[in-house]
Amino acid sequence: MSLEKRRRSKREGPRDVLIRLKAVGICGSDVHHFKNMRCADFVVKEPMVIGHECAGFVEEVGSEVKHLVPGDRVALEPGINCKRCELCKQGRYNLCPEMKFFGFPPPTHGCLANQVVHPGDLCFKLPDNVSLEEGAMCEPLSVGVHACRRASVGPETNVLVMGAGPIGLVTLLAARAFEAPRIVVADVNDHCLSVAKALGAHEIVKVSTNIEEVAEEVAKIKEAMGTRVDVSFDCAGFNKTMATALSATGSGGKVCLVGMGQRELTLPLTSAAAREVDVIGIFRYKNTWPLCLELLRSSKVDVKPLITHRFGFSQKEVEKAFETSAGGGNAIKVMFNL
User: Fold this and answer.
1) How far apart are CA 46 and CA 304, in angstroms?
2) Whether residue 166 is found in the same domain as residue 102
3) In a domain, 105, yes or no
4) Sequential DSSP letters for 128-194
């Protein structure tokens, strides 16, 4: 079927690209949809395709797409914004209220499929030395890159990362690429901490889930850092992790909330405000794919160690892949090879 015929039953038209997907990663939100039929307040009420971390081959291009040709390998940015609202016009398109994002919110279909039609301007050609799997990893890496941009991480910024799950680890990699001179990672899990250390964390600190231990653990974090904490990234998003980040961050520093472990947080903001600690948030990312691809091309970031498990695209393997991702253990990023 031609792209013209496909588009009449799909979304747009001459600016679209038909992609044959080859690499699709599993995100925590996909696991929530798969296990619980919901993610936060968004409930799955009808059959839908999930997945939003992906890369593949261009099969066909619309008549107005000039930067791609059939056969090109591309990474896909999964969110389609309206381009008309004030936020889009201001360049903050990640906050577009009309955003259509792969697999979110339900019933918007995602990318765990053999083919998708997607706007050409959201398809980015991969450098020759960047694999399709690495291209799919641009999506989670973009979260870390956007967080580092929001928090103005640079060569004079000492960074604390709370949480060494997949997003904490890509935030660590991004902070290293942004030349943070010292990075400390804290987590409750020994294996996750060992991975963080292998990926370049200067020091690791094991913490607990007991909020009564915040003061003691902040002291350990400060000792591990050896200097002031300028920016803290909470990549877990719990009362305990945010309380720790707020207390550990030096006066005049920043705490960036990246993770969304709890729907609502109760935080000791008064003492942090008195020290002029800024609290900022992020939502996904914007304009990150070109930088992510350059970081991968130049080997300033290596995401390959994060890909711990690979599966095919049969019913049995899809179920096994989600069980593996949901089960924790030593699984970091589970990837489908279609």
Assistant:
1) 35
2) no
3) yes
4) TTS-HHHHHTHHHHHHHHHHHHHTT--TT--EEEE--SHHHHHHHHHHHHTT-S-EEEEES-HHHHH
pLDDT in tens, 174-223: 999 999 999 999 999 999 999 999 999 999 999 999 999 999 999 999 99
Chain centre distance of CA 199: 17
Direct distance between the N- and C-terminal alpha carbons of the chain, in angstroms, rounded to an integer: 20
Reported pTM: 0.93
Examine residue 22 and state whether it is found in any structural domain, yes or no.
Answer: yes
What total of structural domains would you count in the chain? 2
**Structural domain includes residue 287:** no
Q: How many residues does the chain have?
A: 338
Distance CA(224)–CA(193), nearest Å, equals 14
Residue 163: other Cβ atoms inside 10 A:
29
- How many CA atoms lie within 13 Å of 68's alpha carbon, on the beta-carbon side? 33
Per-residue pLDDT tens for 50-72?
Answer: 899 999 999 999 999 999 999 99
Domain that holds residue 333: 16-125+303-337
